[in-house]
Amino acid sequence: MFFHCFKYGFLEAVRQKEIVFWVVIFPIILGLLFKVAFGSVTEKTKFDTIEVAVVVSDENEMFKSVMDGLSEGDEALFKTSYCEEKKALELLENKDVAGVIYGDELEVTVSQSGIEQTIIKQFIVEYKANVSVISDTIKTNPQKLSEVTEMMNSELKANNEVKLIDGDYDPMVSYFYNLIAMTALFGAYMGIFIPIRNQANISQLGARKSCSPIKKSVAISASLCSAIFVQTICMIICVSYLRFVLGIDFGDKLIMVYITAIFSGWVGVALGFFVGSIGKMGEAAKIGLYTAVSLFLCFLSGLMVMNMKQNLEKIGLGWFNKINPAAVISDAFYCLNVYDDYEVYTTKIITMAITIVIFAVLGFIMTRKRKFKSL
Amino acid sequence: MENVVVKIENLVKKYKELTALDHLNLEIKEGEVFGLLGPNGSGKTTTISCLLSLLSFDEGSVEVFGKEMTPVNYEAKKQIGIIMQNVAVFEELTVYENIDYFCGLYIKDKALKKQYVEEAIEFVGLGDFKKFHPKKLSGGLLRRLNIACGIAHKPKLIILDEPTVAVDPQSRNKILEGIVELNKQGATIIYTSHYMEEVEQICTRIAIMDKGKKIAEGTTDQLKRMIKNTETIEIEVKEISDEIISEAGKLPHVYEALHNDGKLIIRCSGGKHNLIRVLDLLQNNNVNFGRVYSELPTLNDVFLEITGTALRDSE
Ligand SMILES: Nc1ncnc2c1ncn2[C@@H]1O[C@H](COP(=O)(O)OP(=O)(O)OP(=O)(O)O)[C@@H](O)[C@H]1O
Ligand SMILES: [Mg+2]
Q1: Residue-range domains of chain A with CATH
Q2: pTM score > 0.80 for this model?
Q3: CA dihedral A72, A74, A75, A78 (to 10 degrees)
Q4: Which residues from A are below 8 Å from B53, CB to CB?
Q5: Which secondary-structure segment (H or E) carries A270?
Q6: Which pick of A11, A230, B81, B114 has the fewest CB atoms within 10 Å?
Q7: Atom number, ligand 1, closest to the C-alpha of residue B38
Q8: Given CB atoms, is B114 within the 8 Å cutoff of chain A?
Q9: Is B84 an interface residue toward A (CB < 8 Å)?
C-alpha cells in the first residue's frame, strides 16, 4: 500500500509541468545565464591590476624600475601612480588606490584588509628578500630585470590563487549557491499538492481518497516520501549540472555541496507541505501564496538585494534571518564556500533539520482531520 | 428479509442557518437500485457525504453493513465504490494508471488488481484509451473513467452521485446499462439524480427529496399511485372561449382544465376514454385543434403534486 502510493506520488510529481519547470528547467536556464554574464568577468577580477600610489625619492632608481617592470603589459600586477605623500594618502582615502607604498622605507599603508592589500605587503616582503639579487642584476645585466619582475609577478599571483582555494570569497560561485538555494525552495511546489490532494474538503481527489480504506497517515507519508525522493534527484541534477556542465568550481567540498543542496531541498518540500495544509484554499491560491512568501524570504535573506542582511540587523531584525529558511540555506553555502567555518555550518544544518521537522509535523497535524463541517 | 446495507436515521445536517438535511430516514437493502431523486440543492450530495463520513452532521446516525459508519470504518470502506458528482481523477496519470491507482487502494494482490483493472476498462469501454491522459478525453469518456475508478475493485455497495450530468444521451444510456449490469452482478446501487426518466428507467426503489426532507418513497408504481393524477392531456388549441374550458373541467374524471401558451391542458384522475370525451367536446363546439398528447403521470407529476413546484423548474 505504501509503495503503491509512493509510486504514484512519484509519477504525479515528475509529470507536473510546473514542478519540472521550476526545479529542473529554471535552474538550468538561469545557471547558463549566470555563467554567460559572470563567467568572463570573474576571471579578470581574480587577477585585476592593483592600483597603488608610490612615494619614492627620485634617486631610488632600483625600486622604480622594479615597480615599472611590474606595471607593464597586459597582465601587469600593479598600476602605479608616483606622487607626493599627501596626494598618495588622499588617493588612498578616496579608495582610488588599494595602498600606498613608501619605496625608500619599504613600508606600506593600507586602509582596509583584503587580497589586494595582502599582495602589496607580500610584494614588499619579496622585494626585501630579493633586494641584493635585484641590485646585482641591474648592475651586471639590466635587460634581465624584466625576468626578475615577471617571476615576482607570477609568484605573487600564485599566492593569490592559493588564497582563493583556501576559502576566499569568490563572488561568482556565490551566485550559483543562491541559485541552488532558490531551486531548493521551489521544491515546495511538490509538497503543496500533498495535503490538497488528501483533504476531502479541499479537493475532489481528496474526497475520493478519503472514501478508500487507506489510512490517511499512510497516504500522506507515502506522498511526502515520493516528493522528497523527487526533490533529492532534482537537487543532484542541479548541482551536477552546475559543476560538470557549466564547470562551476565548488572547490574541494563537492560532496558537502551535494549534501547541503539535498538537505535544503527537503526544507523546501517541508515548507510546501505546510503551506498546502493551511486553510481551505485551492491549488492555485496556495501556490500563489507560497511564491509570494518565498520571494519575500529570499528578499530578506539578501538573495536579491545585497546588504539586505546588514540592513535588517541595523533595525534589530537580524534574528529573523537566523530562522528564515532562505537565509539559513544560503548561509550554509556561504559557510562552505566563503568562511570555511564548519561550526557555523553545523548550526545551519541543524537549523534546517529543525525547520524540516517542525513544518512536516505542523503539516501532519493540520491534515489529520477526517470529517468536515463543510466540504 | 434481505440484509440492510445502509440505514440512515434522523439525519440532520445544518450549514449555519441553512438546514440541508432535515430528519432524513433511509433504508437501503441488499440488491436494490435505490434512486435518490430531488432538484438541485435538495440535499442529495450532502446525504451521500454524510453517509461516507466525509461530513459531520448534527443529529442522527448512519450505519453501513450493520455497523456505524466512521472515517476509520475501513471494513465498510473496502466494500464501497464511490463515483462523485464532479470528476475526480489525476490529470498527470493515464486512464490505466488512474484506475490502477484507485483499485490499488483496495486490492493488495497484484495479479488480482491487474485483472480487475482490465475488467473495469473493458466494462466502461475505454480499451482504446488506456494510455490517454484525462485532458485528452471527451466529457463522456471522462465520466466513464470516473466511473471505472470507482468500481474497479468490485464493491458491494456502489454510490453514484449524478454520474450522467453533461453527458450526451448515447453515453448516458451506456452508463445506465452499465449500472444495471453491475446490479445484476450483485452490487447494491445508490443513484442520485434530478432526471426522473433515468431514475424511472433503472431504479427499483426511489426516494424523492426536497429541501432536505424525504417527501415520498417507494417503487415507481407505488409513487404514481400516491397521486390522483393518472393522465395529462395536452391539445394544441389557438383560440378557445372560457365557457368551453370550464365545460371541459366538468367532464367526468377531469379535475383540472386550463388554457396556457396555446395549449389546452386537462388533468384527469382515473377513468377511461378521457381523451375521447375531451375531443368530442371540442368538435361539438367547432374548436380547431392541432396536435394531441396524452401522457401517463411521471415522477415529475408526483413531485409537483406533493410540493407544488415542478422538479424541472429548479434546474
Ligand atoms: N459547504 C456548504 N456550505 C453551505 N451550504 C452548503 C454547502 N454545501 C451545500 N450547501 C447547501 O446545502 C444544500 C444541499 O446541497 P447539496 O449539494 O446536497 O444538493 P444536491 O441535491 O446534491 O444538489 P445538486 O443536484 O445541485 O447536486 C443546498 O442548499 C446547498 O446550497
Ligand atoms: Mg449534488
Answers
A1: 2-42+171-366 (no CATH), 49-155 (3.40.190)
A2: no
A3: 40
A4: 370-371
A5: helix A254-277
A6: B114
A7: 21
A8: no
A9: yes
